[in-house]
Amino acid sequence: MNGLDSVWRAALGATMVVALLAGLLTITAAPARAATGSIVFTRDHNVWIMAADDPSTATPVTTDGTAEAPYLAPTQDDSGRILAVAGGEGGDIVRMDQQGTLLGDPFRPPDAGNFVDLDVRADGDVFTHTSYRSYDTVLGFVVAPTVDFAYADGRDPSDIANPAFDEAYATYSTDTTFMTSYDDDLNATVATYGPDDAEPQDWFMPCESAQSSVEDDYGFCFPTFADVTTAEDRVAVAVPGYDGGPVPSRLWVFDMPGPAPTAPTWGCELLGPELTQSGDFEFQNPEWSPDGSALVYEYYAEPAGGALENGIYVASGFDAGCEDGFATAELVLPGGSYPDWSAAPFGASPPPSEPPPPTDPPPSPSPSPPPPSGLVDGGRLDGGGAQDPVGQTIATSRMLFGDGEASRVVLATADRFPDALAGAALAGDDGPILLTSGLGDLDPRVGAEIARVTGGAGVVLTLGGTHAVSDAAAAQARAAGGDSGCAAPLPGSCRYAGTGREHTAALIAGTVLAEHPGSVALVARGDEFADAITGGAYAAASGTPILLTPSNQVNVDTAAFLTANGVAEVVVLGGEVAIDDPTYNGLPVASRSRVRGPERTATAAAIAQELWGGAGLGAGGVVLVNVRHAEGWQTALSAAVASAVFDAPQLGVENPPAAVGAETQAVLGANAGPVMAFGSPDLVSDAQLGAAVAATP
Predict the structure, then answer these.
(1) Is 74 part of any domain?
(2) Could you tell me the pTM of the whole model?
(3) Which domain holds residue 376?
(4) Is residue 651 part of a domain?
(5) Could you report the per-residue pLDDT of 582-594, keeping only the tens digit for each?
(6) How many CB atoms lie within 10 A of CB 690?
(7) In whole angstroms, what is the distance from residue 20 CA to residue 295 CA?
(8) Rounded CA gap, 374 and 673, in Å?
(9) 210-243 burial, b for 16+ CB within 10 Å, e for fewer?
(10) In terms of domains, do 55 and 110 share one?
(11) pLDDT (tens digit, 9 = 90+) per residue, 478-490?
(12) 35 to 38, 436, 454, 652: CA distances (angstroms)
């Protein structure tokens, strides 16, 4: 619960709402139990693993984590597959084995904010993730934790019942979860959420226990639970300290005479050190061993150096009694954090994934008709849209460039947007943005299009590391372009591979700034695509670099780029929900401004009006794209090149059948050029396109 927890508390104070999840419990008799399996955790910014009964086996799983881009919140299923956040709170989810080998592409679940907690179900299929998002409340915009469910292999989670609880810190074992919620009087309760439930069902109120003394310490029954974990027959709850009391942190254990809705009974508590100064002092991330006989937990103090050392502790022997269990507690991993105890043995090898189907050789390029001289009013370019994003990018390329007309191709993964967000400015009007899926070979259709559009004599620039586009796919793409080398200011490897999306964007921005010298940069949030995509169309047309940052903190790579390159002015895309005021004010530049609207289509309209119009651009019409659909960003990204080629800003629509927004209609009303939709009708409907055309003079 490190990081943004203190931001959340500062934002809401005593009204903080935190959610906790755990698994469905099956009560079985077990006269003798032994704590086995393995524990994954973080230390020195990386994921580590150890045998649960032997801390001396602690071994790093990853080695590329840094203070600026750490790994966070690892969790392991019973087969030894590990999920973790890579690149810090705003990073992606990676799935790997105990040796750190990736088991698929990194991914980011839809609408996720800054991650603080993950927990995977024992079978490895589904996991919960907690992330912080901005909400408009009676107190103004606040940052709050939200729990969602997703598939551990990164596939589309839209078929999962996903209520997006405005709560946090999830643990998960089976298909029923347990969480803390709150009643109308802000009293903390633990609730259940099962597969057939429409909403959480109250289970019990931990601080109603007379032994807890929480109401005496806090003044009311809302102690801001940090985390909860369940075993076969007991529950543990970590309660943060409160330096305003001062109230020390504590760990509670409850016995479970039966599964929910039977209420647990008081067991005992472990009281943390007395607080002598302000700061964070708390037990957190408790996790029962698979058999429930031992408890691993973390103690975290900031500032450190108090009576209890920061790190991971294990208490065993709970079968002999609750107090006996805590009496055995010992520090096993100094400086460790985020412990997660799994039944997977140390050294486990997860089952192999099914091999990908064989790849057909690229078909021979076929000549394409000459590209049109401009947008077609009321027309549509549908190359597959949301159903075939790769095909859509190819169709866009064939529309814009004749055979051999492109001097470069920008290649990115079609599977997720982070590495691709800044690519539009790199492409400009010099060549298309093409996408390929998976970590195997290049999509043969893409190879054929690269050969056609470059005439076998163009540079292919790959966005992201090998977790985004494999070495094999990148090499095949370069071969289709004639194996043209990359000279400065392009990277010699022809690949922009940062430690995270913000670093990748900064590397791309370095090339853009070298090719188009200037002192202005755009900055957009990196965890949502809408503002960066529609702003990217302007970046492509104007040669302006675009950088990324989390919504609530200035990314270090973004700040370093601004400082090192003498950027004097930054234009932030979006309002305070997209990038909050402290982050906006923290950008290290002499001048800053916002281009924003009350929602994403209105922000796109503001970009068209203020940036395109302010620069004397945008006379070629309007490119109409979807800015909401989870599989719509690929279409809009590739269409940014159309905006650059035809001098036409992007305007956005929500998912059909939503009406065209008032701000969008106002911009259309001042536009005398053609309006053309990009993508299939499930992205931009015929009715939306017709309304947009009708709004023009």
Answers:
(1) yes
(2) 0.54
(3) 372-386+618-696
(4) yes
(5) 999 999 999 999 9
(6) 14
(7) 17
(8) 10
(9) eebebeebbeebbbbbbbbbbbbbbbbbbbbbbe
(10) yes
(11) 999 999 999 999 9
(12) 9, 45, 61, 55
